[in-house]
Specification:
Blueprint: H1 2-28, H2 33-52, H3 58-69, H4 72-100
Helix pairs in contact: 1-2, 1-4, 2-4, 3-4
Length: 106
């Protein structure tokens, strides 16, 4: 459970932090911060997933080797880690998009 929460929060933090810093960069370069934040949130999303699962191909190797040997517990665990990271990146992107659209105050 700790790994799932950590993967979620790491992916969430990568998207949130990268987008917010991209917005600061937009302000410093006199561009529209909301537009840049939306752009970076979408662009960073896949990299947040990669960062959260370890940045290597190892999780896929674990899935492949254990699946071929019939050991499903490690396979399910790795798939849950990847799904947790994806969910964190998606929630982070959705939050940035929601903030940039006005936060539902319309």
């Amino acid at each position: 459970m700790a790994g799932l929460i950590t993967n979620f929060l790491v992916a969430f933090g990568v998207v949130l932090g990268g987008s917010l810093l991209g917005g600061i960069g937009a302000v410093l370069t006199l561009q529209a911060p909301a537009v840049e934040m939306e752009h970076w949130a979408e662009k960073i999303k896949i990299w947040a997933l990669v960062v959260a699962v370890g940045g290597t191909i190892d999780p896929l190797r674990v899935i492949e080797s254990n699946f071929m040997e019939g050991h499903m517990s490690p396979v399910i665990k790795q798939i849950l880690f990847i799904l947790s990271a994806f969910l964190g990146a998606h929630v982070g992107t959705s939050l940035i998009l929601w903030i940039c659209k006005g936060g539902g105050s319309q």
